[in-house]
Amino acid sequence: MKNKNSVLLVLLLVIAAFCVIFNNKISAMFNLKEKSNITQNNVKFNFEKRKDFYLPNETIKQYSHGCARPIPLSGKSKKEIYDIRKNYVENSIFANQDYEPSEDVFGQIESGKPWISSNVCKDPKTHSMRISGRSEESRFIVNPNVLVALEYPFSFSNYPNEEWCADDTINMLPEILEYDGYKKEIKVYYRRLPFPTNDGFSFYQFNGINARDLGYRYAYVDMAKSSFKPVFTDSDNIGTRAVEFQNFIHLGGSCGVEGGCNNGSPRQSYLEFKQAETDYSYSNGEIYIKLWRNEPSSVKNDADLVEKIIIREY
To answer: I want to staple 239 with a disulfide (CB 3.0 to 4.6 A). Which of 84, 129, 221, 280 is the partner?
Structure first.
């Protein structure tokens, strides 16, 4: 009898031990699943931190401000440049605490490298593009409100003097930006187009680096609503269909400096245009640009935002 009781006691102990082990495994399994869910949620949150697009601040109904001047970027680290960009976005109509620069747009920037200068004149000694002083691409980085900018993608070997080279109008810097929150409309003011384009090769172009970064990837110039009529160099262009901006910054060799420079790319022929007038000094008017986050089924669709580029002589 004593032996039977001993066997029964051992059996009960074994069952109790098994139950403890089983319960511990069940508890561990649920804890692990919970941790897995937390990890997945964290990954999802980090993924969503870089939004596909950024809306203008709804509290801003009327905004008018002078455009920022370019700044030197040569030698700066990628992190420094990202911090500069985030600071300017934080003080823009697109301010958002979750903003992160798009890797598609800025991800190929190389730390510590030179940047092409905003000065349109080549160095008289090296006959290469300048890399000192204010950087060309910085005018987009520090002006996020200018979703679509104008630029003249040529530099000069022969020029009157250094004062001419440094002139803001010559360097295609916008002057004033206005935003109407009721109409969802941005106005960007330029003081004329400074160069003639009747020489057979030169042209102006639209630059959509800010539009692409902030999520407004598709654009269309509504010629019917534009008093300034761009003469596009390609039959397939932003005035005939909604095009997708491809702008980005990378390390390229076009500056002629050993090791390359950070500069904008690529060439997009559907964004290039000339002036209609032979006498460029009379190029005044407004270019009406419709912007969308997603590709529209028709250019007649309502735009998510409108930008009006206003070119004026005074």
So the answer is: 221
